[in-house]
Amino acid sequence: MGKIKENPFVKKVGFNRIVLFFVLLLLYGFFCVMTGGNFLGVGRILSALNYAYFLGFLSLGVTFVIATGGIDFSIGPVMFCCALISGYSLVSHGISMPVAIIISILVGFAFGLFNGYLVAYWTVPSFITSMASMNIAKGLASVFTKTQSVNWPQASAEGGWYRMIIKVGDIPVGLFIFLAVAVICAIILNKTKIGRYILCLGSNKEAVRLSGVDVKKWEMLAYIICGTLVGIGALFYVAAYTTVQPGYGDQYNNEAIAGCVMGGTSMAGGLASISGTVMGVFVIALLQEGILALGLDKNYQLIVTGIIVIVAVFGDVLSRRRKN
């Protein structure tokens, strides 16, 4: 195994990403065989991609937070809160679609700012902050919508053009948008001062502070980036599924975090991979679609996702022990 990891090609591409690529191939082959070839259709692939888009934005966002050594368990409910507040304003108050889109992103930004400020400036543990934000997001969305579900416009209705961010015909436009945003996130994390400081915070926050860096500003920025991406993810969720109900979203927290950790982002902070997160998200999305194709209950996916998180974190712990 050591010789394989030392191979120049493997080192350049990343051992973890290569493993995830083969996991994707194996999962796809497994589901094709188990469903008698029914999984080969374009419809299944597009359905899996629909799930990958919004989950991908959640995972990209939380990657920045985990890189600082923090955690955010509010991303799922905040996504629903963004979709509900903007959607209710659209449907019940007659605002235009562009304004609704801006509101969704701004709500996500506000939650990111709130979480980041509490964690960075008030030194509230990220776990406590995100749990509080999760409840606030659920309550705020329920109060704003009067506990009613919100139906965003169908493709044929007025304002339904927003659904083109997912696909046009059979062209998966959402895939190109998601990958473009992932590239931007990778550049920010790996090639800019923002990313460098965020990763350094996760490695040794005190050392960064003693070097004269305003650690509070950069730590808060990680949460703001996360919240903004969650607000964008909400738009991809409603573009794919149209209907949003108050009180939901928790189930996507673990899946988004699983995508990050599976892709090589360390829960201890200081190490993150955007490309690995993208691969991890595709694995989760394919797994979800495959379980549905087999006619199994979605609860099976929850079990498998939980196991994936444990295995990925355990692998991260072992890797850090070897390095130490």
Mean pLDDT: 90
Widest sheet: strand order?
Answer: 1-2
Separation of termini? 19 Å
Main structural class: mainly alpha
Identify the overall geometry: globular
What is the element string, with H for helices and E for strands?
A: HHHHHHHEHHHEHHH
The low-confidence runs, each spanning 5 or more residues with pLDDT under 50, are none
Structure description:
There is one protein chain. The protein is mostly helical. 74% of the residues lie in helices and 1% in strands. The chain contains 13 helices and 2 strands; from the N terminus they run αααααααβαααβααα. Strands 1-2 form a two-stranded antiparallel sheet. Helix 3 (15-34) packs parallel to helix 12 (274-293), helix 4 (42-67) runs parallel beside helix 9 and helix 5 (75-93) packs across helix 10. 45% of the residues are buried.
Give a quick summary of the entry:
With 324 residues, the chain is mostly helical. The chain has helices at residues 2-6, 8-13, 15-34, 42-67, 75-93, 97-120, 126-145, 173-191, 193-210, 215-241, 251-262, 274-293, 299-323; strands at 150-151, 243-244.
Task: Summarize the topology.
Blueprint: H1 2-6, H2 8-13, H3 15-34, H4 42-67, H5 75-93, H6 97-120, H7 126-145, E1 150-151, H8 173-191, H9 193-210, H10 215-241, E2 243-244, H11 251-262, H12 274-293, H13 299-323
Antiparallel strand pairs: 1-2
Task: Quickly list its features.
mainly alpha; 2 strands
